[in-house]
């Protein structure tokens, strides 16, 4: 039998991407469709990293086409390509960085740094090129969490710095540049200048995403950073208790004020499961993060339990996503990372998309 392009498009249009909830044709992910007699070949290009999903998605599309009577060979190549997306008006992109994700919290100690590093590692595990910038001047913890404390970045020209590498991430931290155990008293302008310099003087190498572990709070330093750094979107980390949520709301407002879209909220230390008896307890309250998201009409990205594994693995220099990549907790971080990447991919839809080109060749 001979297929026509309409049949192929109609079938592909029925297949919903489980990550975006949209069909692949409307999402303009289908490229270079070639129909040759009963055989079909095409490429599927996802706008978000999803190495673990390439095969299941390919199978989903192949199954849909297999139902077409008389269909011949089906050849589908699935890949991901992350492009740069828009940032605040009037702020220029950084060289070598396509998208910056700011991870922020209204107050300290809620697990912002732990979430940042696991989010970065989860994006990297899905095939993205990822960097992490530890801008937490009050307590830089990325060097220790990545197991590279005490190292110093190299400079080839005495002006710029090469980021250190850990678990495939490019990493830069204020902690690499100051002596450990030296308390730093940062005044607003000095801190902002140091952070801006660290951001601009680091030679980032072809990053899909740079995660910035922001200083906690919503003061002048945070406000200046969110105005001057080209941020694609912000992730807010909170614990479920009222006081943290109140501060997280301030964080949301701050980003809104400077035109940075909120990618969503992560609720950390959400539930405690007793490692001895399995009893579940909402130590810091329940449902607060989700309620905040409903109130502000923003996505709830997911909830991490209060779990000793998260703390001990981060403390030992190998965060959960690399220590236990197939475990229950890594799965939550990976799901959050996928939601973040999909939200970013959706941002550019109207700017960069072409219709799939369909070529019919006679057999
Ligand atoms: N879900 C969790 N379960 C158990 N421990 C956690 C969890 N999340 C973070 N922690 C631990 O809580 C402590 C604080 O976490 P983290 O440093 O990530 O917070 P932070 O918000 O970045 O803090 P600061 O603002 O002070 O830098 C760390 O010891 C970390 O290992």
TrEMBL record:
Residues 6-76 form the MIP18 family-like domain. Pfam families: FeS_assembly_P (PF01883), ParA (PF10609). One of its GO terms (biological process) is iron-sulfur cluster assembly. ATP binds at residues 106-113. The keyword Nucleotide-binding applies. The keyword Iron-sulfur applies. In the C-terminal section; belongs to the Mrp/NBP35 ATP-binding proteins family. In the N-terminal section; belongs to the MIP18 family. This is Iron-sulfur cluster carrier protein. Binds and transfers iron-sulfur (Fe-S) clusters to target apoproteins. Can hydrolyze ATP. Homodimer. Gene3D superfamilies: Fe-S cluster assembly (FSCA), P-loop containing nucleotide triphosphate hydrolases. It comes from the Bacteria. InterPro entries: FSCA_dom_sf (IPR034904), MIP18-like (IPR002744), Mrp-like_CS (IPR000808), Mrp/NBP35_ATP-bd (IPR019591), NUBPL-like (IPR044304), P-loop_NTPase (IPR027417), YlxH/NBP35 (IPR033756). One of its GO terms (molecular function) is metal ion binding. Keywords: ATP-binding, Hydrolase, Iron, Iron-sulfur, Metal-binding, Nucleotide-binding. SUPFAM superfamilies: Fe-S cluster assembly (FSCA) domain-like, P-loop containing nucleoside triphosphate hydrolases. PROSITE patterns: MRP (PS01215).
């Amino acid at each position: 039998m001979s297929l026509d392009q309409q049949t192929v498009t109609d079938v592909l249009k029925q297949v919903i991407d489980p990550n975006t909830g949209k069909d692949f044709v409307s999402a303009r992910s289908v490229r270079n469709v070639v129909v040759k007699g009963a055989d079909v070949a095409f490429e599927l290009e996802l706008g978000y990293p999803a190495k673990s999903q390439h095969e299941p998605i390919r199978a989903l599309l192949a199954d849909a086409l297999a139902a077409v009577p008389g269909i011949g060979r089906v050849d589908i190549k699935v890949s991901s390509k992350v492009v740069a997306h828009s940032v605040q008006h009037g702020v220029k992109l950084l060289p070598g960085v396509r998208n910056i994700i700011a991870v922020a919290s209204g107050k300290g100690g809620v697990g912002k740094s732990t979430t940042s590093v696991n989010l970065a590692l989860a994006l990297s595990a899905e095939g993205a090129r990822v960097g992490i910038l530890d801008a937490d001047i009050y307590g830089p913890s990325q060097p220790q969490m990545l197991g590279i404390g005490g190292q110093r970045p190299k400079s080839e020209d005495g002006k710029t710095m090469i980021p250190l590498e850990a678990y495939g991430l490019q990493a830069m931290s204020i902690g690499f540049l100051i002596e450990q155990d030296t308390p730093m008293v940062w005044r607003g302008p000095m801190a902002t200048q140091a952070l801006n310099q660290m951001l601009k003087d680091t030679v980032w190498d072809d990053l899909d995403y740079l995660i910035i572990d922001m200083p906690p709070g919503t003061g002048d330093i945070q406000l200046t950073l969110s105005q001057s750094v080209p941020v694609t979107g912000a992730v807010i980390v909170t614990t479920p208790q009222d006081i943290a949520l109140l501060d997280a709301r301030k964080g949301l407002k701050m980003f809104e004020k400077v035109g940075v879209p909120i990618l969503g909220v992560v609720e950390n230390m959400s539930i405690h499961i007793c490692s001895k008896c399995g009893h579940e307890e909402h130590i810091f309250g329940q449902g607060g993060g989700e309620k905040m998201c409903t109130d502000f009409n923003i996505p709830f990205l997911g909830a991490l339990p209060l779990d000793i594994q998260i703390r001990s693995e981060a403390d030992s220099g190998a965060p959960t996503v690399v220590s236990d990549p197939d475990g229950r907790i890594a799965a939550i971080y990976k799901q959050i990372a996928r939601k973040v990447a999909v939200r970013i991919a959706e941002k550019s839809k109207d700017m960069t998309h072409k219709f799939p080109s369909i070529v019919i060749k006679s057999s």
